[in-house]
Every structure is written in structure tokens, then in C-alpha cells.
Amino acid sequence: MEIQSCGAAQEVTGSCHLIKVAGLSVLLDCGLIQGRSKDENRNRDPFPFDPAKLDAVILSHAHIDHSGRLPLLIKAGFNGPIFTHKASADLCDTLLKDSAYLNYKNTQWQNKRRARTGKKPLEPLYEREDAEKALKLFSTLEYGEKKEILPGVTIKLSDAGHIVGSSVVEIWLQENELKRKVVFSGDLGHRGTAILRDFTMIDEADVVLMESTYGNRLHRPWEETWQEIDDIVEKIQKKPGNVLIPAFSVGRTQNILYMFARNYERWNLGKWQIFLDSPMAIEATDIYLRHHELYDPEAAKFWKEKGKQLGLPNLSYSKSSEDSMKINQIESGAIIIAGSGMMTGGRIKHHIKHNIWRSNCHLIVTGYQAHGTMGRKLVEGAKKVRLWGQNIKVKAKIHTIGGLSAHTDQKGLMEWYGNFKSRPPVFLVHGEAETMEVLRKKLKDDLSAPAHIAKAGETIDLNDLSKYQ
Asked: How many other C-beta atoms lie within 10 A of the C-beta of residue 315?
């Protein structure tokens, strides 16, 4: 009985953990590696296990860094069930097909460059057909439903408060007389965030796998975040131009729209044209609307009453490429919400090209920016960006709102782990190495926790947990 970390070990993306019990193999998440080109190229490496011999997959939530290699898994021979929440399955129907399309288009672009240098063409990582095959394998659960998915493997999902359908996963394992309970935090949401309920506390476990994205920092109080946003709005009103908001299509986009709707009059948003320029975000918003039973009561009532327009009469949904290109004819007065959230692809790159050199342009960064991404470079003060072979000066005002994170902070992580009645060994995943070390030390010093940093390929022996105490 063991767990092997096959991804998101000392890095934020590529979540993937292999559980072996009683001759069975269960995969926990199968996420895409994102970030720099050399990191994304690792998605083409063979899995460190035989996908055809997997018995099942458990998916914590739909974000691509947790679900994005599922089609590749199917392509490599997996044909078993994929267990997840109903809302996550609905989101994956959009996200995996979109990921397949982006893989195809990116490979086309790479092959044009490779052809010029005499290199052999690449095949797409996977195609839409692979995504559709993966989607047919989904088996859905509700929060709180305890289900034996394989002999000796029982799971239960609870609300993680990160995006709609995101789950904390409890897994009960049995091999002969040995019983173990593993708890995987998934991605824990930022408490108090609009729309979703707060993450679920669990009090019993033998081993814990816990995310650590913001394990070295504290989010500012919500009052300060709202003040920061008010200050940014005031600066924009004094020097209006176009406002670019790179946003993750699932979760962040919906929170931004909700924030706009609740502050429509106060921020004088009526004088702006607001564009949601992302087919995937538009579909994700529809899915959010279908699952308002998962919201906190206030948000559920608001979204149910307002419907697709969300109380924003000047909101336009830009689905086609032609719609998107028309936006770039606007020199001032447009608020453009577009993906990708880290500015590594998608329509936001085109809007950056057309606006970032303008001194009256404002770019608002609302989420985590991984090392090597354009977003990270802009946050760190880059004076120019390179797009499609062209260097473009950065004259826009770059604003960063840290308090809107969809991940909990160090305090939230400490309180979530601190709720366990005992002090089970905790292995930190889904975080950068320096961040993990800060959190590991904090857990040890403040809670006397046997805290460890998961390493790629490392095996956790569930037969003898004393070695981790």
C-alpha cells in the first residue's frame, strides 16, 4: 500500500498522484504541466506508470492543471472510470475540448517553425477525439456521498471552495487487515470569496496530501482588498483608456463578473463597454449558473435572479474571432476580460499587443502568475514583451490584486490541517519549493506536525507510517 507523487511535487501545476493498494492502481488527478515551454514539453514524456493498468482515476476538480492530461491518459491506454463531482464533469466537457483545440493549434504553430529549420513535425499532445473518449468515462458523485469505487477503495468528496465542483477527497483503503485513510486537500479555496461556500474541514486521517500554493503568505483582509480595488478604480477613472483583465476562465472570471455586478453603480461601470472575450469562460459561466445550489445563499439568490446577463446591461459576450478582433478597434472605454489567466495564450495576448504600449491602458492582474509566464514578467516590471516575434514596449499601468486568489493562504492551510484530531503525516504538494519549505517549518513549529515535502517519484509507504512521524 503506497502513494507515489507523479506531478505537482515542488511545482504548482501537473497534479498527479498514484495510489497502489491490494494489487489495484488508482490515480489521483492527472493534470497538465503549465508554464515555460520547457515545462510544457514535459507533458510529452511517458507517464511513470502504465496507464493501461490503472483501475480508476479520482479527479479533485476541473482546472486543467488537475485534469488536462486525462485525454493523454486515454490515448496511452487507460479505459477505466473517472470519479469526480457532477459540476467538475460539466466543466471538463468544456475545458478538455478546449485544451485539445489549443494543443492542436499550438502544434500547428510549432510545426511551421520546425519546418523552416528542417525539424520533423510534432503530433498534437492529444486531439478532441481523445478528450471526448475521456469524457465518456466520467462517473459523478455528489458532495457527502460515500462510495466504494473498487474492492478496498472507498471515497467521499466534500466542498473545497476553490471553483464550482472542487473537492476535498477522502479515501479509505484496505489491504488484507491493514486499513488506511488518505485525505487529499485538492485546491482549497480562499475563505470569504464571493459565490462559493468555504472549504470543508476534515478531522480524521492517517496521511494527508495538502496543497501549498500560498503556504508562505497571508492574504490581506477582505476590507483591504476592497480598498485596493477601489483605489485602482479611482486611478483608472482619472486616466481612462482600455482595461485588460487576464482571467482564468473558471472561477476567477465568474468572481470578477459578480464583483462588477455588485458594485455597478459605485464604480460607475455604466459608462464602460464590458467584454467577456473567451468562449471557454462564457461556457463556464453558463455552467456556474446551472450549479447555483453550490453557492453561498446570497450569491445563489443573486445569480438565480439576474440570469446570464448577471445584472450588467453593458456586458457583451464575444464568442467568435471576429467579435474579438472588433474589440481592438476601440481605443478607450473598454473593459476586456479574456484568457489566459497567466497570459501564456488565448485572446488576451492579442489585446496586450494592441494596448500594452498605450500609456492610458490599464492591465489588472488578478491571479497567480507562474515563473516564466508573460504575466509573471509584467508583474515583476518588464519594460517590453515579445509577441509573435515583435518586441512591444510596456507603457500600460500594471495593477496587481493579490486578495482575489482562489487559493487559501498560509493561515487557511494551517487551520485546515490543524482541524485533524491527531497529527497525521502531511505531505505538501502543489507548491513551489521555497514556499513548501516555509509551510513545512510553520506546520512543524506551530502544530508539531510531521510535515514533509513530496518529491517527484517519491513513494510514501502506507504500511509503516512510523517512519514519517
From this structure: 20
Residue 75 CB partners (closer than 8 Å, separation 6+): 126, 130
The 8-class DSSP code of residue 123 comes to: P
pTM over 0.85: yes
Per-residue pLDDT reduced to its tens digit, 53-110:
999 999 999 999 999 999 999 999 999 999 999 999 999 999 999 999 888 888 898 8
Closest CA to 27 of 55, 66, 68, 8: 55
Task: Compute the mean pLDDT over every residue in the chain, rounded to the nearest whole number.
Answer: 94
Q: Please tell me the distance from the alpha carbon of residue 185 to that of residue 199, in angstroms, as a whole number.
A: 9
* Residue 121 near residue 113, CB atoms below 8 Å: no
- Is pLDDT of 349 > 80? yes
In the chain the domains, ranked by start, together with CATH numbers, are 2-217+407-468 (3.60.15.10), 222-404 (3.40.50.10890)
Angle of CA points 198, 67, 283, to nearest 5°: 75
Tell me the C-alpha distance between 18 and 3, whole Å. 5
Other CB atoms within 10 A of residue 293 CB: 8
Three-point CA angle 462, 465, 468, nearest 5°: 120
C-alpha–C-alpha distance, residues 402 and 393, integer Å: 25
Distance in angstroms (rounded) separating the CA atoms of residues 62 and 59: 8
Contact (CB, 8 A) for 137 and 81: yes
Using CB atoms within 10 Å of the CB of residue 190, give its burial: 0 to 12 exposed, 13 to 18 middle, 19+ buried. buried
What is the pLDDT averaged over residues 281-285? 94
C-alpha triplet 432, 436, 441: angle, nearest 5°: 160
